[in-house]
Amino acid sequence: MAKKLLECWLCGALHDYCPTCGQTNGWKFKADTREHYQILTVKEAFESGVFDKDRAIEEFALHDVKAENDLSWMIPEVEKEIRAIIGEKPVKTTKKSKLYKDED
Q1: What distance in Å separates the CA atoms of residue 22 and residue 84, rounded to the nearest whole number?
Q2: 38 occurs within a structural domain
Q3: Which residues of 13-34 are buried (b: 16+ CB within 10 A; e: fewer)?
Q4: Total domains in the fold of the chain
Q5: What domain range includes position 60?
Q6: What is the dihedral of CA 27, 29, 31, 34, to 10 degrees?
Q7: Nearest 10 degrees: CA dihedral of 25, 28, 31, 37?
Q8: Could you read off the pLDDT of 75-88 as tens digits, one per residue?
Q9: SS3 state at 28
Q10: SS3 (DSSP) at 4
């Protein structure tokens, strides 16, 4: 059977998938890399109630998916769903220097 071109459910990258090829792993139906598949698995485990929020956050962190990281490489809707679990990226604030008036 011919290979199919599928889109990664996490990042949107296109990749080859062959449903009958013994050398192609089943995880490639959803993801282009094993790590992306593992991240999707954590997301699904949280959504199905297998993981509570704290456990999901811990598991995401094992794959460097943390609130402080840039996750813009993900499909926007997936990033939004994961951010709902791990939290938003902290906004960096810069301290404004105080302006001093010259005294007369």
Answers
A1: 37
A2: yes
A3: eebebeeeeeeeeebbebbbee
A4: 1
A5: 4-86
A6: 20
A7: -20
A8: 999 999 999 999 99
A9: helix
A10: strand
